Amino acid sequence: MANTINSVYSLVLERELDKLHQETGIASLSYLGSQVSRGIAEVRRAYLVKSLRSGTTFVDYGDVRNRIAYLYKFAMFHTAIAEYLFTFLYNTSVLFQETIIKRSSTLKICSIGGGPGSEMFGIILALQKLFPPDTIHATVIDICEAWKETFYFLLIVLEAQLKDLDFKRKSLVCEDLFNRVWSYEIEEEITSADIVTMMKFVSTIAWDEQMCEHVLMRIFQLMKFGSFVVYIENAGGQSFNIVSKMASRCGLREVIQPVIGKRFKSSLKTFGILSEIQRHVGSGPLKSTTVSFAVWQNIGSESLSRQTQQRNPCYGSNSLSRMMIRQDSCSSLDDIDLRPQQSTSYNINTIINSDDEDDESLESLEVMLIRSTTYPMYKRSNFQKSLVERVSQQIWQYCTII
Fold it and tell me: Does residue 369 belong to any structural domain of this protein?
């Protein structure tokens, strides 16, 4: 749905450019282009390797120039990647597919660090092709409240363009997840979600590994039984290792084997206002990037309360989780026409050139593709449910003792 991506973002960008015109009082596109160029430089600076390492990734998206820069430079391609990978996940995992079908009346999606709703947009596009739910609860949790109007407007435009798309609820909740106390609203949004997404969020907080682990643990412990976490991130640094470790510690199981370091090339074309912006800023939207992709499911015992899960981070051991699943079939990411390019391998010490116009700045590990695997729905008998319950209680007692 490349045309939908282009047309929706064109309208969103026109609205933001109109705001920039109102702030500056100057309508000249060449002048506005120079202002957007400043925004692009600011956003790119925030995502340099040295910025990710030092935790200096904050961008003031209250500045309309920075919002335009992000929407134009990165958001469209991020939406396309989310659509590709969500389609792949749905077509690959029977477990995930069955869950989506069961939630056909209302599907609740919570995007952590989702900004203007880039990955939310992509997931909705995929759902419209695959198995559109009757209604969608769309929630973004982000540190920047300035994205709220943009997020709402994007969903309004999307709702107008896609037939039968109905948002029962849309919300952007502002919160710094490094805060020791989260609002009740944040906890409720995560707890009620069927799908929690984290696209290029973890890399912005991984500079403080201890706090990053704490944030991830709180998110995973709040997730309800049977919900999924979808992770899409730059293929570099320690982000995946941190998320994988905390998911295992909190008893989440892998739904597919992680895809580490898959390169994608954009097929999106610019036209209309996008072409005008490109002509005046001298560079186009992001053309290629390398990402890692992983999905986990919370399979903790339904009978144990959330309070018990929160008090005991070792609840639901990963080894126990793996006893309850079986590998059924193998499917490659390349089986689906997502236009991924062949992965490139780099020396572990290599740093991708931060000035490369085609790529986001990231520190690369040795890049490889692990074939994706389907885990079917695990069918429990009454005896097995009883057994799992008893084992879970033993784990709880053990955790309490230690």
Answer: yes
Residue 331 above 90 pLDDT?
no
Q: What would the pLDDT profile of 29-80 be if each residue is shown by its tens digit? A: 788 888 899 999 999 898 888 888 888 888 999 999 999 999 999 999 999 9
Per-residue 3-state assignment (H helix, E strand, C coil) for the chain: CHHHHHHHHHHHHHHHHHHHHHHHCCCCHHHHHHHHHHHHHHHHHHCCHHHHHHCCCCCCCCCHHHHHHHHHHHHHHHHHHHHHHHHHHHHHCHHHHHHHHHCCCEEEEEEECCCCCHHHHHHHHHHHHHCCCCEEEEEEEECCHHHHHHHHHHHHHHHHHCCCCCEEEEEEEECCCCCCCCCHHHHHHHHHCCEEEEECCHHHCCCCHHHHHHHHHHHHHHCCCCCEEEEEEECECCHHHHHHHHHHHCCEEECCCCEEEEEEECCCCCCCHHHHHHHHHCCCCCCEEEEEEEEEEECCCCCCCHHHHHHCCCCCCHHHHHHCCCCCEEECHHHCCCCEECCCCCCCCCECCCCCCCCCCCEECCCCCCCEEECCCCCCCHHHHHHHHHHHHHHHHHHHHC
Task: Supply the range of the domain harboring residue 229.
Answer: 77-269+281-401
Tell me if 58 is assigned to some domain: no
Q: How many domains would you assign to the chain?
A: 1
Residue 345 inside a domain? The answer is yes
